[in-house]
Amino acid sequence: MADGAQTTTAVTGFPCGFFGGGGSGGDATGAGTGTEGAGGAQGIAGMLFPLAIFVLIFYFFIIRPQRKRQKQHDTLIGGISRGDQIVTIGGFFGTVREVRDDTFMIELAEGVKVRILKSAVQTKRVNNPAPALDLEKKAE
User: Are 104 and 98 in contact (CB under 8 A)?
Assistant: First the structure.
């Protein structure tokens, strides 16, 4: 090899087809038996399937219920009008005195009025409590 000719040596035994070997019996050019391409496609599908399952679980357990709660809250806010009794997220009970674009003017006590954001309303109180059961009649 004194005349300047170069030689190449194939490196084999590396996983995943590195350096043309890949343990598939291929030559130095990586031609092999043709199974490397199919193995690569299965590897990608094998990685994407658990990811897709994770996305579906995330959607059904987190995103979908949150959208449902937000829709219910928007319906609740849209149904509040003057004179309704509400409870704020801070726990204050009040009566709606005025409805504005994005706020309510509520009266907490006689003469005490407060302006709150519509998003700060937690629930609307029902004015008609359920009738109490007469336990004496039940005992008979």
Answer: yes
Number of domains observed in the structure of the chain = 2
The CA distance from 82 to 10, in Å, is 84
C-beta separation of 114 from 105 below 8 A: yes
Are residues 68 and 39 part of one domain?
yes
Q: In 3D, which of 6, 7, 2, 8 has the Cα closest to residue 21?
A: 8
pLDDT digits (tens, 9 = 90+) for 6-31: 666 555 555 555 555 444 444 545 55
Torsion over CA: 98, 103, 107, 111 (sign): negative
Residue-level pLDDT at 38 = 55
Residues 6+ away with beta carbon under 8 Å from 7: 1
Q: Could you list the residue range(s) of the whole structural domain that residue 42 is in?
A: 15-74
- Give CA–CA dist 29/1, Å, rounded: 23
* Dihedral of alpha carbons 77, 81, 86, 92, sign: positive
